[in-house]
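Lay summary

Proteins are chains of building blocks that fold into shapes. Our project writes down both the chain and a compact code for its shape. Here are two examples, one after the other.
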Amino acid sequence: MAESLPPLNALRSFEMAGRHLNIARAAQELGVSSGAISQQVHALEKWIGCRLFQRSNRGLSFTEAGQLYFEAISKAMDEIRGATRSVGRPEIRKNLIISVTASFAMKFLLPRLTDFRSLWPDLDISVSTVELVNEFNPSDGDVGIRYGHAHQANMWTREILRDELMLVASATLQGVDGRPLSLENFTDFPLLMDKHPSVIQDYPSWQEFLKNQGVEDTSHLNLREFSQQWMVIEAAINGEGVALAKKCLVHTDIASGKLVAIGAQQLSLNSGYYLLTLPENANDPIIKSFYRWIEKTVAAL
């Protein structure tokens, strides 16, 4: 009778966890949850009858048996991959094109994309930008991120972020009388705005935001309009005025000290960011990995 073998999924999970010595990284690379990786590794340990990893707050380390087993399994998995390639099975995709709005690309995605690249070091990842109001078209890329309300038919769509608006400005901003910027006097400064209120349904204008905060007289406002929100944010960094910006787009600049939040007022938005791809791409391991990565990245804000 042939000797039985452990389940292939358990072996794949163990090998990937062993490559990274990190459950979360292994899960992202395989496009599954961390819990699924942990369950598969535990099942393999139970099947074999010994511990393969030591677990601690710092991550994973091999037991002696685990190290020996990993060396053998990783060689075997490499041989399986080589054999599969030799008979002509298409390899995993070599590139990923991410189509996003310019502001999301510049102020959110690009400052963080190195982390995703580290998960797929052999993958050619490129970013293309579109205007704020622009439906995702497969010719734009492999996966798209759009802002607004989910409405595109015949697409696999997931909301990844429903954000808030907040007041931000340069910490060096001062009025003509030398008074420092504060919650009490920020409307004396130029108020920077973009085209969101005119093109996104239910997106609040400066006037609506201020009325929500109890400011009824908005006739005296000094508004400066820019075509995109990344321009508004850069203008605020340069001390041109006060910006009303999405929290996700200014998070990095606040953390670096380029911007400061004015007060604690935040206004929840009815619109959000959505990830889209063709339905037949929804189970692509790289696209699944990107979706899980960006979900985790957003959750960390």
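And here is the second example, written the same way.
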Amino acid sequence: MSRRTPSYSIERKKSRWGWIFVTPTLIFFLLFSFYPIFNAFYTSLFNKKLLSLKPPDFIGFNNYSYLLKSPDFWNSIRATLVFTLGTFAPLLIFSLIFAIFIMSRKRFQKFFQIAYYSPAVLSSVVAAVIWLLIFDPRGLGNQWLNLIMNTPGIDHKWLANSVMVQMSTMLVYFWKYVGYFTIIFIVGLASIPQSIYEAAKIDGANDWKIFWYITLPLLKPTTILVSIMSMLQCLKTFSTQYLFTQGGAPLAPINVITLNVYNTAIRDHRIGRASAMSIVLFIIMLFLTWLQFKSSRADEISY
């Protein structure tokens, strides 16, 4: 008879304890992430009313076929993509610029980090309310823009004009989250060894070449993380658009999918159709995340 080796027994104990620690997290994700997704898909197959006591009628994929023919839903797709494209790129670019600026300072680094990050501490509702006051015809938004453009007394209709209200929602999200992603970039920059920069300077590389050929490639994992997180955050936007429409802004230009889901479920009581919208949004988010991973796939850079 062969004896069981001590190393084999130790590995089994490690594996057992690993599953013990991981199981609560798996259960949490199953209950609060995977189950709602499957339940939403199941609900989307029925003509279910939110407050009706009658059993819902099974209609298969009719909710999805209705969405494909609905101009209102396609407008939500357009509003969501416009908001995401208009917010995602500035968030990614300026958060990297701000991170490099902060890391290049020899003094007041902590102050700048706190200053940039402080809006991220606020809830989305509070941030939207603050900017509602700024975008008021008598608020600071008009005052600042009139000062820059030398157009005293002009109301730029931040919450009335269809183009301006879209830019307003983008501005609120940029202000709130740029500091959050700046901190993530700072962590990524701090993880790059200084010896690499010193070697590049000895070889005669200038600041631009150091950034383009050293910093940016070594920062690629952080850039992918920030790009995916910021994109998903933009696709999930809701609070700003909801509060702006409640404040009198036109609905159509900022009727993103999440807002349409809310109005369809809560206002129209069509929970089945709203569930179909949420599944479509989930598929869009999944596809764009996969596309970013695929487009950024390359050989790993080691240092």
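What can we say about the second shape? The chain has a mean pLDDT of 86.
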